[in-house]
Write a structure and sequence with these properties.
Layout (H helix, E strand, L loop, with lengths): L2 H10 L2 E8 L2 E8 L2 E3 L2 E7 L3 H8 L2 E7 L7 E11 L3 H10 L4 H7 L4 E15 L8 E4 L2
Antiparallel strand pairs: 1-2, 1-5, 3-4, 4-7, 5-6, 6-7, 7-8
Length: about 140
């Protein structure tokens, strides 16, 4: 799989599992990514959430994307370092694209939406047909 293939897969399967680790305790949660390209994988959370503080405390994360197809299972794990992206244009773009954020914004304001961008990315691809083979590592940035 090429770098282009990986980004295409991620953009076609935006729901993923995000893994963090705080105080040597792993935590995972399902997330909906916003977009993925060679400039990073973008997602957002709220500044009032524990996840926000976790990402600032330990920016090393891993994302796991899965196509959900039992006939042709593909899983791509991407690890790297997240940085908060404070670009107001990106924040507005996310807010306009995701009306489900309106309730949060009404209560906490637009500044409560915190975009993050995953950088220094490497991916590993898993498929059932390559289940027993060594991992294929694909640099993404």
């Amino acid at each position: 799989m090429t770098k282009t293939d990986v980004f295409s897969f991620i953009n076609g399967n935006m729901s993923c599992n995000l893994a963090t680790c705080i105080d040597n305790k792993p935590q995972t949660r399902w997330m909906l990514m916003y977009k993925a390209d060679s400039d990073g994988i973008v997602f957002h959370t709220g500044t009032m959430r524990d996840l926000y503080r976790s990402l600032l405390t330990n920016p090393q994360v891993e994302l796991c994307f899965f196509n959900g197809n039992p006939e042709n299972m593909i899983q791509i794990r991407v690890s790297g370092t997240v940085e908060e992206d404070k670009d107001p244009v990106l924040r507005k773009e996310i807010i306009q694209a995701r009306p489900f954020l309106n309730k949060v914004i009404a209560e906490y304001g637009e500044e409560s939406i915190a975009p993050f961008r995953l950088r220094n990315m490497v991916a590993s691809v898993w498929t059932m047909e390559k289940n027993t083979e060594p991992k294929e590592i694909i640099p993404l940035s």
